[in-house]
Write a structure and sequence with these properties.
The complex is a heterodimer of chains A (113) and B (114).
Chain A lengths: L2 E5 L2 E5 L4 E8 L3 E9 L4 E7 L6 E3 L2 E6 L4 E6 L8 E9 L7 E3 L3 E6 L1
Parallel strand pairs in A: 2-11
Antiparallel strand pairs in A: 1-3, 3-8, 4-5, 4-9, 6-7, 7-8, 9-10, 9-11
Chain B lengths: L3 E4 L2 E4 L4 E8 L5 E7 L6 E7 L2 E5 L6 E7 L2 E7 L7 E8 L9 E2 L3 E5 L1
Parallel strand pairs in B: 2-11
Antiparallel strand pairs in B: 1-3, 3-8, 4-5, 4-9, 5-6, 7-8, 9-10, 9-11
The chains are: A mainly beta (113), B mainly beta (114).
Chain lengths: 113, 114
């Protein structure tokens, strides 16, 4: 059974800090890893990673995948209160069930002013 | 605005009631999904539809009955639910189920069973 473990489960920081969120996974026939940000409503898509060692970047957020060690990190620099959310990691397998995303429990990030 | 609209936003119902959740996507996608999000648990996939055909029923109890009349609309019909069914129900869509495209989520329906 596919498995996604995120750490830490929660994190409290001050504005301006840099944070690193972790996601480790076990999946049959790995295809891609996705990061989502969930505030009170819909999870919104951040990144999709398929290749090891290639950093994806969007503003203050960046993410990288290590397919050998089976993990990904999401970095947020110069955090702002608007970054407060639950960050979800999900993996997709290839093959016949390649529509299925397996999610982790998420990391709750709180950024205090 | 994610392009995926869910109604109602909140629903409170008794265990003997029948109600339906609605999802509509405006993204031209061909695949739609229902997920359940309970407190302190990962998002759980319930159903997947591809071009209006169900391709996954992830061991969901029969008191949940999905319907996909066309590629833009998805319903989840509810009857005789249990208190443990209280959760956030999220709808998502993607370009197609087999491609490597991200799923886009609606805001969800917060369901409370009395």
């Amino acid at each position: 059974e596919d498995k996604v473990v995120q750490s830490p489960l929660s994190l409290v920081v001050h504005e301006g800090d840099t944070v690193t969120l972790n996601c480790s996974y076990e999946v049959t026939n790995f295809r891609s890893l996705l990061w989502y940000k969930q505030e009170k409503k819909a999870p919104t898509f951040l990144f999709m990673l398929t290749s090891s060692g290639i950093e994806k970047k969007s503003g203050r957020l960046s993410s990288i995948l290590d397919k050998k060690e089976l993990f990904s990190i999401l970095n947020i620099t110069a955090t702002q209160t608007g970054d407060s959310a639950v960050y979800l990691c999900a993996v997709r397998r290839g093959g016949g069930s390649n529509y299925k995303l397996t999610f982790g429990k998420g990391t709750l990030l709180t950024v205090n002013p | 605005e994610t392009g995926v609209t869910q109604t109602p936003r909140h629903l409170v119902m008794g265990m003997t009631n029948k109600k339906s959740l609605k999802c509509e996507q405006h993204l031209g996608h061909n695949a739609m999904y229902w997920y359940k999000q309970s407190a302190k648990k990962p998002l759980e996939l319930m159903f997947v539809y591809s071009l209006e055909e169900r391709v996954e029923n992830n061991s969901v109890p029969s008191r949940f009955s999905p319907e996909c009349p066309n590629s833009s609309h998805l319903f989840l019909h509810l009857h005789t639910l249990q208190p443990e069914d209280s959760a956030l129900y999220l709808c998502a869509s993607s370009q197609d189920p087999g491609g490597n495209q991200p799923q886009h989520f609606g805001d969800g329906t917060r369901l409370s069973i009395l």
